[in-house]
């Protein structure tokens, strides 16, 4: 067990890292962030920042000297860097688990071996002839094997000609997935400690717009789906021998859950827990890293989260005063500089004692901020 005031390491300087720093500080820890951006928002909140690339051997050695354990805020930290750190101190999640999650080819193969249902898919390379593809595979989505997120690195294709063009545009290995008629999108965030304890936040339901998360309902309040999601997620944690926070995204198709992908970290859809749960996903991350006791059951109140993208700033600063005048509104701005279209600048969570009130205030808030109704 790692107790405060120990110093923890964080690879990544974005908003997820920033919230980890805040949760660690509340528990009495210090944090060193390693990120190549000297103006990173997590580094600004941390006790120290090492400004260097994630594969800088000297910087990694310095991080290992300053810290007693390390975690990461996103899955694209080079697995080789995590493996290097593992020679000197605990790294949670381990390089072996992150390696699976950061490449869709490895991830799909792992999920298939684990016996978990996924959408029909196959791996394609940009410089190789296409195999014979059945018409039933279309329409489909072509996704880059690595680093695509929030709709980036993805193309919807309806036939072989469009697929050939998209694959050439990508220029990298890709995964082609059949586009399924979705009845809903859900996510489950859970944590596992080195001692083997597991704690899960409730299942949430997500709605996306343009490939970017738009709104989250927490909890989803679908007991049968939640039980199945927990069974699948705990099975995956065991198969990965995973320690840390893991988020599993699901598609609901024909009444059954399919795994879309895994994130070896807290997730945007887990942000409601900051305001509606006794132990949020970032405190779970700190507790799992340090082998502190995990809560057996996360009790939550009704909440709806709205993502705030840079588009909202096109005509000036949004009406925060009006938003904060609504009961149960919790505004979170991440401290990023430029408000670019599609960039996650923050989120707002509406909480309350009952769903009727929360839903009414969320509708009012969407209209106030100029978001289309949902």
UniProtKB/TrEMBL annotation:
Any Pfam family: ATP-grasp
EC number: 6.3.4.18
Pathway annotation from the record: Purine metabolism; IMP biosynthesis via de novo pathway; 5-amino-1-(5-phospho-D-ribosyl)imidazole-4-carboxylate from 5-amino-1-(5-phospho-D-ribosyl)imidazole (N5-CAIR route): step 1/2
Binding residues for ATP: 104, 143, 148-154, 177-180, 185, 208, 260-261
Reactions catalysed: 5-amino-1-(5-phospho-beta-D-ribosyl)imidazole + hydrogencarbonate + ATP = 5-carboxyamino-1-(5-phospho-D-ribosyl)imidazole + ADP + phosphate + 2 H(+)
Keyword Ion transport applies: no
Catalytic EC class: ligase
Matches recorded under PROSITE patterns: ATP_GRASP (PS50975)
Residues covered by the ATP-grasp domain: 108-290
One cellular component term from this protein's GO annotations in UniProt: cytosol
One of the GO BP terms on file: 'de novo' IMP biosynthetic process
Key words of the record: ATP-binding, Ligase, Nucleotide-binding, Purine biosynthesis
GO MF, any single term: phosphoribosylaminoimidazole carboxylase activity
Recorded superkingdom: Bacteria
Role this protein plays: Catalyzes the ATP-dependent conversion of 5-aminoimidazole ribonucleotide (AIR) and HCO(3)- to N5-carboxyaminoimidazole ribonucleotide (N5-CAIR).
Family, per entry: Belongs to the PurK/PurT family.
Quaternary state and interactors: Homodimer.
PANTHER family, sorted: PHOSPHORIBOSYLAMINOIMIDAZOLE CARBOXYLASE, PURINE BIOSYNTHESIS PROTEIN 6/7, PUR6/7
Name listed for the protein in its UniProt record: N5-carboxyaminoimidazole ribonucleotide synthase
């Amino acid at each position: 067990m790692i107790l405060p005031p120990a110093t923890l390491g964080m690879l990544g300087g974005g908003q997820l890292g920033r919230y980890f720093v805040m949760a660690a500080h509340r528990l009495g820890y210090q944090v060193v962030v390693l990120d190549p951006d000297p103006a990173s928002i997590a580094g600004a909140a941390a006790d120290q920042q090492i400004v260097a690339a994630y594969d800088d051997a000297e910087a990694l050695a310095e991080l290992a000297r300053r810290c007693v354990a390390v975690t990461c805020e996103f899955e694209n930290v080079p697995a080789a860097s995590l493996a290097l750190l593992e020679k000197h101190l605990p790294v949670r999640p381990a390089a072996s688990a992150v390696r699976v999650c950061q490449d869709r080819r490895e991830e799909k193969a792992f999920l298939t071996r684990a016996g978990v249902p996924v959408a029909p898919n196959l791996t394609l390379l940009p410089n190789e002839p296409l195999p014979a593809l059945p018409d039933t595979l279309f329409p489909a989505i072509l996704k880059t094997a690595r680093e695509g997120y929030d709709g980036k690195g993805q193309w919807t294709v309806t036939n072989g000609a469009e697929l050939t063009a998209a694959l050439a545009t990508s220029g990298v290995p890709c995964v082609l997935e059949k586009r399924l008629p979705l009845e809903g999108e859900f996510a489950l965030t859970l944590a596992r400690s080195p001692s083997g304890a597991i704690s899960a936040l409730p299942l949430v339901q997500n709605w996306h717009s343009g490939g970017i998360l738009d709104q989250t309902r927490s909890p989803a309040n679908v007991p049968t789906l939640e039980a199945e999601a927990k069974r699948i997620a705990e099975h995956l944690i065991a198969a990965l021998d995973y320690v840390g926070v893991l988020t599993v995204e699901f598609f609901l198709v024909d009444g059954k859950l399919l795994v879309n992908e895994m994130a070896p970290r807290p997730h945007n859809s887990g942000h409601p827990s900051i305001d509606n749960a006794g132990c949020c996903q970032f405190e779970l991350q700190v507790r799992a890293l340090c082998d502190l006791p995990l809560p057996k059951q996360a009790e939550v109140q009704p909440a709806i989260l709205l993502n705030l993208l840079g588009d909202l700033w096109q005509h000036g600063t949004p009406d925060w005063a009006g938003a904060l005048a609504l009961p149960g509104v919790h505004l979170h701005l991440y401290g990023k500089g430029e408000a670019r279209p599609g960039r996650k600048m923050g989120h707002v969570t509406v909480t309350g004692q009952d769903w009727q009130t929360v839903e009414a205030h969320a509708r009012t808030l969407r209209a106030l901020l100029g978001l289309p109704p949902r």
